[in-house]
Design goal:
Strand content: 25-35%
CATH class of the largest domain: Alpha Beta
Strand order of the largest sheet: 6-5-4-7-8-9-10-11-12-13
Distance between the termini: 157 Å
Number of helices: 5
Order of helices and strands: HEHHEEEEEEHEEEHEEE
Shape: elongated
Oligomer: single chain
CATH architecture of the largest domain: 3-Layer(aba) Sandwich
CATH superfamily of the largest domain: Cell division protein FtsQ/DivIB
Low-confidence stretches: 275-281
Length: 285
């Protein structure tokens, strides 16, 4: 009698090969996805580059107008020269940030903004420093309305600014609380001189001498005006009365010097009289 032995098949023997084949296919699919993604990205980048080149070289966006706003001291031509933008330049190819930096390198400009006006315009907005005086600190520097030096004086700068002598670099500080008494006194006088009806307008002041002991002396209207320290609004009121008396020929017709250090004892020195009257005593008000 024949006997048939049943052999047990190993159903798991080929499974590792199937897993290995599946892993290769998955990696191949992943590789294809990466290649496809890179190809799409490269194609998109190429389209962007070609599009950018086309736009930035297109005659449609050529600069035809460069408008300047906010300038009072610098001319439009001076500001446009600072930008280095030329008529015909493509406005989309202009680096606005770089143009702003060029503008800020000019000592007169405190703030600058540059923008495009599609399709063919550039707008430049600037804010200039407001000069109050010229400080003589060995070299001459321009002082703005915030009490900061913003540039060294040059031959092309305005000439109708008061010249200030007697200060030192140590009197100035970016921190207002650390500024010296003489410097704060100077700023107060200059601020009063900016007012429209000031008795001592800055445009009429030739020079201001700063003395650490006796304070400020102002030279204006061919006269010497000793202000000292403190109480400047009250001193300006008294000075206005002195000018009124001189104009109307009351007590004196003109004066060379007025000392307002002590408001309770104002000393006036009249203009030098002819020889026989030269010894006329000083007037006190």
């Amino acid at each position: 009698m024949l006997e048939f032995k049943q052999t047990n098949k190993n159903h798991y023997r080929n499974r590792p090969y199937r897993k290995k084949g599946a892993g290769i296919r998955e990696r191949f699919k992943l590789f294809l996805k990466i290649i496809l993604s890179l190809s799409v990205a490269a194609a998109f980048s190429l389209i962007c580059i070609l599009g950018y080149d086309y736009i930035t070289q297109s005659n449609y966006f050529r600069a035809e107008t460069i408008a300047v706003e906010g300038n009072r001291i610098l001319s439009e031509d001076e500001i446009i020269r600072e930008t280095l933008i030329k008529p015909g330049d493509n406005i989309l190819s202009v680096n606005l940030s770089l143009v702003r930096k060029r503008l800020m390198s000019n000592g007169w400009i405190s703030e600058a903004e540059v923008s495009r006006k599609i399709p063919s315009g550039i707008i430049v907005r600037v804010k200039e420093h407001s000069p109050l005086a010229v400080l003589n600190l060995g070299k001459e520097f321009l002082l703005n309305d915030h009490g900061k030096i913003f540039k060294e004086r040059s031959a092309t700068d305005p000439e109708n600014l008061p010249l200030v002598k007697g200060l030192k670099f140590s009197d100035l500080s970016l921190n207002e609380a650390k500024r010296s008494e003489p410097f704060n006194a100077l700023m107060t006088v200059l601020e009063l001189g900016r007012k429209s009806e000031s008795v001592l307008p800055n445009s009429s002041i030739i020079q201001i001498n700063v003395d650490r002991e006796i304070g400020l002396t102002v030279f204006a209207f061919n006269k010497t005006i000793r202000l000292g320290y403190n109480n400047y609004p009250d001193k300006y009121e008294r000075l206005e009365k002195v000018f009124y008396h001189a104009k109307n020929g009351q007590d004196f017709s003109d004066f060379a010097t007025v000392d307002l250090n002590n408001l309770s004892r104002i000393v006036i020195r009249p203009v030098a009289a002819p020889a026989k009257e030269a010894e006329e005593p000083k007037k006190e008000v």
